[in-house]
Amino acid sequence: MITAILFWVLTALAVAGGIAVFVVNSMARATYALAVSFVAVGAMIVMLHLDYIGVITILMMLMEMAVMAVFMVMFMGMNPALMPMDMTHNKRRSVILAVLVFVVLAAAIVFIPWPNRTGSPADDLTKSLGDAIMGSKMLVMLTISPVLFATIIAALVLANPKGRYDRYGDALDRRDVDGHPDPDDPIPGGLG
Amino acid sequence: MSDGAFVLVVLVPVVVAVLSAVTASANGVLDARTNGAQLRTGFAVPFQETARLLRQQRRTLPGADSLLWRISSAGIGIAAVLKVLVIPLGGFTFADLPVGVVWFNAMDVLLWALWWLLGWGANSSWSLIGGYRFLSQALAYEIPLMFALTAPAIGAGSLRLLTVQTAQTHVWFVVWMPVAFLVFAASVVAFASWGPFQTALGADITGGVLLELSGIDRLLVTGGRYAVLVAGAGFSVPLFFGGGAGPILPAGVWVVLKTCLVLAGLLTVRRLFPTVRPDRLAEIAWVIVVPLTLLQLAVVAVIVGVNGGAL
Amino acid sequence: MTLHLVLLVAAALFAVGLYGALSQQVVVMVMMGIELMINGVLLAGGALWWFLSPTPDGQTVLLVVLAAMTVEMAMGFAVATVVHRSRKSDMTDSATDLHG
Predict the structure, then answer these.
(1) Which residue spans traverse the membrane (chain C) (predicted)?
(2) Tag placement on chain B: N or C end, fewer CB within 10 Å?
């Protein structure tokens, strides 16, 4: 009973949050509506006994949305709440396509004869996930880590307007008489 | 959760509020001592402030996003209570999550959102600058914190706080994970945007996030900061100080006692550090503290590997 | 809470996300749409795992989905930054160089 109520409340939050993202006209509200949707989905995943994945989803998405809001404000360059304008294109076709996709997916979900449940969950699912990552499925994680590392580097190369050499010039270890880097580091930090 | 636990859950926010008030009073006393004022006046500061704010009328700037603003001012205390719910009191815990350590981390990330929203909602430039300051500071402390939190988890071989607590029957984790504890303690202070990490509320931006807050909202935020401190200190007990273990007194009392001692430590140490600018903090945190934390993790992993478990 | 219900919710999230990704002009909003779609995938993955085959190592797939989401975010922001810097705009309509 409690599970059912919780499920429907979370469903409402997840879907309403998702819709709100594209309806509200405030950048902060759109971003945090998406955060609400993610938190609801994270809670549902916890209800599906995937504690670690669910809580990690909540953690990651809250963090991501906090950063996303900053990018939104930075790039939009204006406040749609003050200057209402429509930042969309192909609205009608998009709606038709989205509804169509939902109908096809829903039909598939209802009509596919889902197989019976096989296998049984481990007693400690978090531990079994850890064992899988460090054991039979280690290759997956070993593949993901260089991908993530490459992403960090690629994203930095793209986004950083000035690299190491723009920061200090050719002579990275050049020092002034007072021991400070010369020319002075244009990107100040705690270490130089 | 049994029926009795449901009744006790109601007490959790009350206990958090009382401990927050005590911390705020202690802070007031220390402040009074530094300023050479009467200690008694310092003790009464938080209560006077509460009475004043409860009577103060709310003011809102035109164009403020009141919905997000109010949610975030109430949310800080709620995040603190949500953290406290998973802290074990001896063998008893309100919410025995198998991933309690990750839960704590998720709740402190919630604070990122709340502090930024507090800055955003007010529709004041100074507040928004405060919100941005908190985010950049959060980016700096979160990476070392995430690694630091894994140290007790590796030591115990579990993310469940009850297991982490029982793994410390012989030696407390703080003894062989001092770096992890220091990073954790610093991060707790930073969650609350307090002490050396208070630039989001700095006087140089006329109070930053707090600037436009008034009345009950301001009370919730200032109280919530102390609640976050209390929750963080309380969380260090099962992570680093052996949980409810202790002679004679019941486990629950020991947890509260140890929490108070950690809080006292934070209150004292706070006065020894100058305020850290977020842009400076990022480089220090990532270039110096992250490698130190990784070294700590390596030490813990080797000890656990050689010893076949916690010390 | 049955497999069908959870999958339907996931499909709804996916469809809403698809609408956003197709209709929005601002790059960050497009990314939000994609995020919402991945959100649906994540939920569907969790449901399929629990209701069909709750084997220990099936959870790894969901970690892969989460990692994919991270990569999408990081690269999306990086590209948005580059586009913004070079054209002072964050609209998808102004970045159609690859349009045939």
Answers:
(1) 33-52, 61-83
(2) N
